[in-house]
Amino acid sequence: MTQLPANDMDGFGRLVAWLAQAALGDTGKRSDGTLDNNLGALTFAEVFAEFCNRLNDWIGPFSRISIAMEVLHPELSGGTLYWRDGEIEERQVKRAGILTWDDYLRSPVYVIEQTNRPWRWRVGDAVPDMPLIQDLSAQGNTDYCLFPLPFQDTNRTSTMSFATRRPGGFADLGGDDLGAGLLRRIAWAITPFMERVALRIIALDLLDAYVGKIAGKRVYGGQVERGAVEPIDAAILVADLRGFTSLSEVLGEIAMVDLLNRYFDTLGGAIAAHDGQILKFMGDGLLAVFPITDDASRANVHEAAVLAALAARGNLATLNAALLAEGRAPIDFGIGLHAGSVAFGNIGTGTRLDFTVIGPAVNQASRIQDLTKELHEPVLASGGFTAILQRPMRLVGARTLRGVEKPVELFAPMP
Fold it and tell me: Is residue 313 classed as helix, strand or coil in its secondary structure?
């Protein structure tokens, strides 16, 4: 592109100077003494809102400005911020089904994802078979420009769009491409700040999805050295699917993966709802912890773990009803509950690490889960775990656990 016209240089410079200060802030210390590299920086939503306000005052009026980014999240494809008359709206796009979503396939964004080039519609052009452009045209818009943002990450698409109702559209902005050149430079000005936000979101989402919130926060905070572990106190939940081998042989790999996902959903939703963290999937098994921060919270955390187990059993009943309606056999799983101190941190090789918990308490929770099959109880908790619960629990019996000197009393939740 050519240089900006001289009459635009001052306005563009003021906008970029404000953007750098608002988005980056300053280096220094917070009031609590901790270091901060972004003192006084606005959130990205705040930056975008004020950026659009200033842009509107400079070369407006705009009827609509949007900025969108694609992320790496198991459930979300991305998100978009919309500015309309000084107001900000945020929308998230679900990942499931987006590739067959008609509004997406008939959109300017889809065209950009195929070409990686700007896209524009102006009044007087034929209105394309695109719901968005049809709506903008019906609302009296005269010009719409959409730009792909030049992220270093070329695997994901991020865009910024501008729309106006002014007579003649953006052509009176001057410069190359009938005003589009100026808008493109404006979109590129915000790109570095947009990308740093996107990269942080992607990193945190990936860590959250693959290692869990607690572990993800610690890894992102710098706890990446092999052997870097610390003791934490936690209630521990171990679950295991019944008849996994025989189910695999009957269903085959693809159908078994689908069933495993539905089975893990019965547990995952219940655990998250009661502030637990899934640390590991072990084939058809699952390991989760409910951290205990102090003695005052211990009884409540144990109660939360029990409630999560019971909620998972309730979710299982719903899943089995769906499976029966599909003409498929129901499934079952057992849950073992225990509590204690565990070592939480990095274990593995020099180049491949796993962030998990280990220790006798984890082993005992796993062995208690194994006994749910023998004792025909879907949920079993150790006596130590049960002792501080306020809810009544039913004594099932005592069993010797491998590695534990004395027999362990086992309890089941009351019906």
Answer: helix
